[in-house]
């Protein structure tokens, strides 16, 4: 039985003092959940969040990293650097990074490998644009992104990869995929993993849904057979709202 993993993506929001206050309030609201709770925060907040979350069930993640360990890459942060301060997760291949920062399937794949080499767990985003969806290409796009992202990983690494299916047209727009549509797309992703790595691996991989998740729709989405929780952007910025999403099954 796969557990539910619910991750917040703060994107480029929250100053350190706001982040500390958030965790002080949030911690008490989610302490009894059996679901896994992750906050993916801006680099400058990582250290403060790791300190504030110590001794709680809240895990901390970054939102990106470089695939090289060190060197002349001005402005970049490596997996080794993240791991050295205690970060556990990292979002890779978010559509905003693919769209605004020229992230490709190839760089996403390199980053996933670097994350595993350094003991970080990747949350890998895949998803189709509205145009791709309307031309009937959703399955082809998301299975290709999944195959290329996971290329060359061991079965164990694939099992430990979290995939976030995030239809791009649903991110930050208030539009959500229907629970049936989201579940079907996630089944396509799982079938692609089964084809390449076998049923045992596919059955274990956590595949989240992301795209305008809020407390009002979390229960319906996360109760579907193949949706193993969510990656939540806007609605993760308020501790009480995000806590309701984490506690969707209460
Ligand atoms: C995201 O940032 O991954 C996301 C899904 O954003 P939102 O929940 O705001 O649509």
Write the layout of secondary structure elements.
Layout: E1 5-9, H1 16-30, E2 36-40, H2 43-52, E3 58-62, H3 79-84, E4 89-92, H4 95-100, H5 105-117, E5 121-126, H6 130-134, H7 138-150, H8 155-159, E6 162-165, H9 179-197, H10 199-204, E7 206-210, H11 215-222, E8 229-232, H12 239-246
The structure holds phosphoenolpyruvate.
Please provide a brief summary of the model.
The chain has 250 residues and is α/β, with parallel strands linked by helices. The protein has helices spanning 16-30, 43-52, 79-84, 95-100, 105-117, 130-134, 138-150, 155-159, 179-197, 199-204, 215-222, 239-246, and strands spanning 5-9, 36-40, 58-62, 89-92, 121-126, 162-165, 206-210, 229-232.
Structure description:
It is a single chain. With 250 residues, this protein is of the alpha/beta class. The chain has one domain: Alpha-Beta Barrel (TIM Barrel). The protein is 46% helix and 15% strand. The protein has helices at residues 16-30, 43-52, 79-84, 95-100, 105-117, 130-134, 138-150, 155-159, 179-197, 199-204, 215-222, 239-246, and strands spanning 5-9, 36-40, 58-62, 89-92, 121-126, 162-165, 206-210, 229-232. An eight-stranded parallel barrel has the order 1-2-3-4-5-6-7-8, surrounded by six helices. Helix 7 (138-150) packs across helix 9 (179-197). The radius of gyration is 17 Å and the shape is globular. 45% of the residues are buried. The site of phosphoenolpyruvate (PEP) has 14 residues, from strand 8.
């Amino acid at each position: 039985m796969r557990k539910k993993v619910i991750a917040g993506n703060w994107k480029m929001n929250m100053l350190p003092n706001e982040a500390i206050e958030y965790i002080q309030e949030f911690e008490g609201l989610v302490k009894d959940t059996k679901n896994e709770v992750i906050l993916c925060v801006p680099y400058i907040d990582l250290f403060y969040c790791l300190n504030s979350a110590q001794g709680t069930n809240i895990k901390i993640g970054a939102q990106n990293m470089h695939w090289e360990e060190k060197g002349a890459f001005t402005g970049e942060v490596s997996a080794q650097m993240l791991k050295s301060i205690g970060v556990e997760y990292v979002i890779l291949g978010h559509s905003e990074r693919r769209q605004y920062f020229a992230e490709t399937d190839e760089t996403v794949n390199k980053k996933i490998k670097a994350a595993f080499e350094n003991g970080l767990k990747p949350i890998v985003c895949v998803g189709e644009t509205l145009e791709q969806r309307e031309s009937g290409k959703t399955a082809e796009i998301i299975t290709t992104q999944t195959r290329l992202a996971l290329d060359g990983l061991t079965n164990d690494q694939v099992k430990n990869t979290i995939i976030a299916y995030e239809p791009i047209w649903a991110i930050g727009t208030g539009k959500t995929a229907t629970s049936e549509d989201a579940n079907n797309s996630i089944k396509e992703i799982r079938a692609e993993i089964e084809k390449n790595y076998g049923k045992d691996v596919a059955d274990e991989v956590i595949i989240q849904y992301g795209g305008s998740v809020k407390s009002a729709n979390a229960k319906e989405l996360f109760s579907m057979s193949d949706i193993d929780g969510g990656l939540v952007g806007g609605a993760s910025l308020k501790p009480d709202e995000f806590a309701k999403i984490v506690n969707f099954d209460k």
